[in-house]
Amino acid sequence: MTGSYGLDQYVRDLRTITAEETDPVKITERVAPLAKKFAQAPGWLRPEHWECDPAQGFGVHLLHEEPNHDLAVFVLSWLPNRGTTPHNHKTWAVVVGMEGQEQEVNWNRLDDGSKPGYAELKRSGEQVMTAGDVARCYPEHIHSVWNVGSGVSMSLHTYGRHINYTGRSEFDPQHKIEKPYVIKVADEEPQQAQARA
Ligand SMILES: [Fe+2]
Q1: pTM of this prediction?
Q2: What's the 87 CA to ligand 1 centre distance in angstroms?
Q3: What would the mean pLDDT of 104-129 be, rounded to a whole number?
Q4: CA 143 to ligand 1 center in whole angstroms
Q5: Residue 132: left if φ>0, alpha if ψ -120 to 50, beta else—which one?
Q6: 132 CA to middle of ligand 1, Å?
């Protein structure tokens, strides 16, 4: 073996890290360099990972999740000038830029979250991610993502739990609305990494 860092090894490392750490700061600190290593490893990217969902604006390609939906790894492919609403994740996240230019806008929540369906957000900063850049998110962190390049952009997303199973929210800052956020996943039959005892 030439030592290319594949999905099976990445998932084994995710299991080890999350067995040893519970703090999202420490987990993402350890996951970040491995996510970058996997994102840059040759050979695993397939043509369908480039496919975007025109209705949603981006394609969500599931590479792995555990049977209980923990440790979810996705490739996201974004159409130009499309992106997401502001959202949280309710789990930790590590994102690695693979192709193109994705603008990440961060938002601060100003209200205390006690009023159902209501949220007051303030834009707090932004950065543009390109290939090799790594971003770490914590469960209550709110951001939005937009493809600001001229072609399809791609990024590798690793979450502590599949984001359709965390009870997370999307936000409309203008109308001060919070509502459940579920995204359409293209590959409903993931290639499960081999579970090893
Ligand atoms: Fe996100």
Answers
A1: 0.92
A2: 6
A3: 97
A4: 6
A5: left
A6: 17
